[in-house]
Amino acid sequence: MSAVSVDGLSIAYDDEGSAGAPVVVLVHGHPFDRSMWRPQVERLVEAGRRVIVPDLRGYGESAVVPGKTPLAAFAHDIIELLDQLGVERFALGGLSMGGQIVMELHRQVADRIRGLLLADTAPWPETPDGRRTRNEVADRLLREGMRPYAEEVLPKMVAPATIERLPAVAEHVLGMMLGTSPEGAAAALRGRAERPDYAESLSRAKVPALIVVGSEDEYTPVDDARQMHELIPDSTLVVVDGAGHMPNLECPEAFDQALLAFLDAL
């Protein structure tokens, strides 16, 4: 693990692969950490890529910032990290909240991005009901801690069939959630409740995009992915059969095959 200081905050990250190789940056979702990308990091490095995976502020081994963390703050941290590493151009991917952070990065620094991976995510702003729910969940995390929430949402994060078929994956996902700071997770939820609409900026994307979604995803269903596919000019849609909200862990072979084919074509 390495770390950089961004505005006085410690941002942890892994940077693996050859220094001169094409760079791929992967952004984790909520309430996880950079270890959710471990299968992809190993596969991409084997395929000759340099892979950079940060822990977002409030998650993993990065600094915890209570209050409210908007998506723009996460994007700022990643830009600062890449600037300190001397990385100018990169392919960029994210899952769920990580995908929305990718959309914010695309809005800010589109000219630095070679291609977009948008997994189990959606570009639209939060609804009034969604804003209320996210703030209520933030309050709950601060009041109860992570365990009750984590155990409740596990069957939505990964498909119930995955829990039966791949218990180690379910344990990893649950462990990431239990290891997350309630303060950091709550701050992210409050910021995400106020996220902007990314549909307009994505509709003008000038780079290819790979949209991946699990067929059993309850949080961002296949219909959301199809609408995003129609929105983004040069996009490819891959539906991972049998996966829930985390196809990269539930069905890594299918996910990695789609991702490598996409990166090879850039």
UniProtKB/TrEMBL annotation:
<dbReference type="Pfam" id="PF12697">
    <property type="entry name" value="Abhydrolase_6"/>
</dbReference>
<dbReference type="InterPro" id="IPR029058">
    <property type="entry name" value="AB_hydrolase_fold"/>
</dbReference>
<dbReference type="InterPro" id="IPR000639">
    <property type="entry name" value="Epox_hydrolase-like"/>
</dbReference>
<dbReference type="InterPro" id="IPR000073">
    <property type="entry name" value="AB_hydrolase_1"/>
</dbReference>
<protein>
    <submittedName>
        <fullName>Pimeloyl-ACP methyl ester carboxylesterase</fullName>
    </submittedName>
</protein>
<dbReference type="InterPro" id="IPR050266">
    <property type="entry name" value="AB_hydrolase_sf"/>
</dbReference>
<feature type="domain" description="AB hydrolase-1">
    <location>
        <begin position="24"/>
        <end position="256"/>
    </location>
</feature>
<dbReference type="GO" id="GO:0003824">
    <property type="term" value="F:catalytic activity"/>
</dbReference>
